Records
---
Amino acid sequence: MKKIPCILIAAALFAAGCAKDVTTSDNALNKEYYEAWITEQSTDEYGDYPDASPTPVGNGIYILEEQTGSGAAYNGEDFVWVDYTASSMDGNISSTTDAEIAQRLQIYSDSFYYGPRVWPTYVSSLPVGLADVLAGMKIGGRRKALIPSWLMGYDRYNGGAAEYLKHTPANASTAIYDVTLRDFTSNMPDHQIKEVESYGKATYGQADSLSYGFYWFELDKPSSDSEFSSSDKVKINYIGRRMDGSVFDTSIERVAKDNGIWTEDRTYGPATVTWATQYSELKMTLAGSSESTAPITGFQRALWQLRKGSRGEGVFLSTLGYGTAGSGSASRGYVIPPYSPLRFEISFVSLVEE
């Protein structure tokens, strides 16, 4: 049976002894406990992290494990791409970008995206402790760090760790983050354009945009160049893909089953697009539904390129898709992660005869 670390017993007794001392804050007691925990974790006899430094860095995080990357050094750029797993001090995982970990926890879904996640890092967009984790990392590097609760807030203060301790956010919890740095940029639109154009050139041999951030690649030529009229209703099939090629949505049942996203709650079949005088007014009704909704802007622009008999792929920046919010959540899983360019393959099926 594993022994109870003496230093943690001492910390607990210290906390109990000071519980009635109004001059000793809960935050100070928490700090005593965290320091005792990291000291024990960095010892061979009791600890899980023998290489951990008992000395805090930045504003007070503790580095438990570290592997130095071989790529460019992060120097405060506004956006980073990271793989990460977040857990509590006792090892309970709250979120992860790792598919294998999600499968092990039985929370994996083929509908969700697993892979690098974008973190904005400009002022007040990332908790102080996570900003400390990233400081000095290189692309390809990994850090596992203990982040005290008082560094899980977004506000910045002068005065170092002591000042942050005074401003511990309400309901904040200490967390362990295992972070691998994949990339960074201060120019998100430029980064996405390079990604989309690289895909276009590799797949289609060209990458000419029809408008800023929107690209159309023709797969099957139309049988007629005539545009649809505003009174038309057009049946279409579509396949929505992330830039890595994984399918997140489709009107085609076979494609849904082949990609593990089929659900019995949905009726598959061609969607009906109600045409209009401009792309922003296009509305779409899914098979089996009576509700008509406006698709995301990039999808609308792709539909606008469609002609009778044609098929093509629209590729567009995240500003024309799900933007900075994405679709889903960090804890439950993202179908579309924030800042994600998207691909939609769309094919004409028929005109609806009135």
---
Amino acid sequence: MARKCNISGTGVQAGNNVSHANNRTRRRFLPNLQVVSLMSDVLGKIFKLKVCTKTLRSIEHNGGLDAYLETTSNSKLTDEAKKIKKAIAKKKGKTVSATKKETKVVKAPKARAEKKAKKLESAPKAQAKAPVAKKAAPKKAAKTEK
């Protein structure tokens, strides 16, 4: 039985027990997994999953399984969670991108030219508003009387 979260993939970590005498012995840190039934509002299905409590708190914070999967990037999800996310997106009629490069919006050359023209127009105004450097006040000579 794998000790991994079915949504985020959080698994077992290794470390040391450190005694008072600073003796170190190896140990395992197990994730706090809970078997929960999560309902997808869009699909109308109940998914029985092993989920770590940190992920469960995030799901509740985002307003449910559907909202959590929509807002979380695919790189942070397991294969099982990606399948559920894809099914939700398909039912809603949205496309799910696999990488960030696919979601990048490419601007048209005309839009780029317009943006560049706006920058050039605003550049001289910014220079005219530049504050003039103040002259340093002359330092007063300290009196050295005894």
---
Amino acid sequence: MLRNSQPHRDSEVDYGQLLVKRNAPRWLRKLKQYDFLDQPAAPEAAVA
């Protein structure tokens, strides 16, 4: 409920984490689209 035109903010909820979790797939898509995100290199064989 709104009181004093302020939304309720739960002190136990990490709103930043929720924002990133919701938007991360879209951000990654755009980074790939504009070539800001390189594909990860294949792991090299361990040198023995």
---
Amino acid sequence: MRLAMRLSAIVMVLVLVGAEWLLEGVLPAVSFFSSSLLGGSVVLTVIPLCSEDLITGKWVGALSLAAVFSAYFTAREFGLSCSVAILAVSSLTLAGFYIYRTIRKFRSTRQLFQAEAVWTSVDEYFRFFYSLFLMVTAVLLALSYGSGPCLPADLLLMCLSLSLFILIWLRARSGRTMFLGRRKERLIREMVNAGTRMTLPDSPEDEARMNSTYNRLLALMNDKRPYLKDTYYISDLCNDLGVNKSYISNVISVYSGRNYRQFINYYRIKYATKLMKENPSGLIMETALLCGFHSVVSFNMAFRLNLHMTPSEYLARIRGQEDPSRTGEEDS
């Protein structure tokens, strides 16, 4: 559905330009290209985020397309400026969309305190950032129409509109903000997925202590492999490191973005991939038990969470001599 909405934005720009070309008999003005790109950018902006209702987003996107097309053909019917009509309707559509989203968002206050709300807020913040750029571009285009044609200015605004369209299209395609780096986005997502509360160090001394504890934790995991015991609980880890539960939980959360169970399962899955590479014909049940899991079900769930595939799919890749995905860089 999101793919169809992304493609519809491109098709809309091409249809508008093609219709103007056919009806006028000449290549459309540069200003019309800019207006059409701006309308397409608005459609891309209202595409639902991964946390939003896809069905509702489908109708919002369809209404946005219909509004822009209606504005174009209505303006032609009454002899008005098609470019100005597209700009006006696109701006009103974007404003209406934000009013609608605000009402829906604050209708249920419980959603504001869910773990997923953190990443949703980040994503919506940058959606608003793009929308602000779109509104500024729309104002500049409107001012350029009022001051008469000026080819250098029109070309500059068209380049700006095209750049915005491409940037917003990439955002809609990848699900990224396109402003934050990949590493920072991944860190935010991992912290959200961890579902844990964390306390950042208040001083350099606290930070040094936490860093030292985390390094000792990594050394313990890599050297002694306590995670291979299916009865290795957080209390056992505290005894091995000489710290309390709340402190080690916070250290794991801050440095890995995981809670204790996710952290231990990460190492278990990493060890499981090692066993699978060494013996691709081994039984999944046997591998699960050797890695510290109580059952194949919990093993499958942890495997999919870390590698986004099942153990069977991973084994198929090994047997097909393909390069399986890496589990991360926890021990790097």
